[in-house]
């Protein structure tokens, strides 16, 4: 069964179970009394919001079995989608509960809200949780996200864990499912406990164990261009690290000023059991300083992450499409496929604005010559029009790779280029099962 069906099936099963426990526990009892129906709907929506919150925890846990099959792109998209559902369900819960008690007490809604927050059990904790979730939701909107540095966004976002804890204590103290039903109480404790345990094991325990085992350090820093540097990282027993070409880690370089920052960078070379290599472009303060990181600097790495690997391959022949510094995982994949002696045929299209921007073109050329791959370096602005139409349009791609429909296609680059290429490939009739895309905006 596909991982997507597992997720949707489990979510539907838990939704049905939560509804069943709610109804059997008398969730709608007294609905004919003033405000009774509103209170019942509010409690039910609160339970659904709690389920969506648990789904958020499962997605952010980045379970290796799930993440390696779906990829970080898919998990991130679902995390974002379910996050907004959490916010809307929680807000609806607040509105219906407030209106229900206001109807019951015959008081204005705003007055009732103040009474609930400051006099009823742990409702103040829940109110703080709601405010935190609203803040997380606002900063997660695309317009706000584009204006924030990654570090600031991550600082705000991590407070969602505090909201989860506060909401849970609110549910424990006054939630009818907890106070009135031992079965429901056991169910919710198990659900939250399993989700939090998954986060502790995969996001904390496993990275700690791996970093203690491998003891990563910067070995060398090589300048590729004025704004691009390659960093070689060594350690112990790296042949035991389950990393593949096309994957990425969250890297934390332990310098005095930057040890709190973690950034996602793809491997720019196939792991060889001796070194890990990343190639970083100076896109902001968080990456520009890495050009000056000193050999010997300790490194903490969380991962590997990503499903953009040879495991996705379904055919012998492959097309690799890279844009800008999104070439890093493509270069690693080319090296892996180059070592594959199954008689496969590989074509690479490397898209860059200028020759200077094609930072790994020489390495790609050497690898292509070694394994007999065909490399096409396509230069020019995104608006450029060639004799076969727009750059990276369907006619242009077909002119470079006439048999594209008989290939697995790996695409990695900025979101705009990735969308344009995937659209062009769809127009050329490439089946979706043969198209594997990674958005450089997160992973490279």
UniProtKB/TrEMBL annotation:
The lineage of its organism: Bacteria, Bacillati, Actinomycetota, Actinomycetes, Pseudonocardiales. Keywords: 2Fe-2S, FAD, Flavoprotein, Iron, Iron-sulfur, Membrane, Metal-binding, Oxidoreductase, Transmembrane, Transmembrane helix. This is Ferric reductase-like transmembrane domain-containing protein. Its main location: membrane. SUPFAM superfamilies: Ferredoxin reductase-like, C-terminal NADP-linked domain (SSF52343), Riboflavin synthase domain-like (SSF63380). The chain crosses the membrane at residues 42-63, 84-103, 123-141, 153-174, 186-206. It comes from Amycolatopsis pigmentata. Residues 211-311 form the FAD-binding FR-type domain. CDD domains: FNR_like_3. InterPro entries: FAD-bd_FR_type, Fe3_Rdtase_TM_dom, FNR_nucleotide-bd, MRET, OxRdtase_FAD/NAD-bd, Riboflavin_synthase-like_b-brl. It is found in: Membrane.
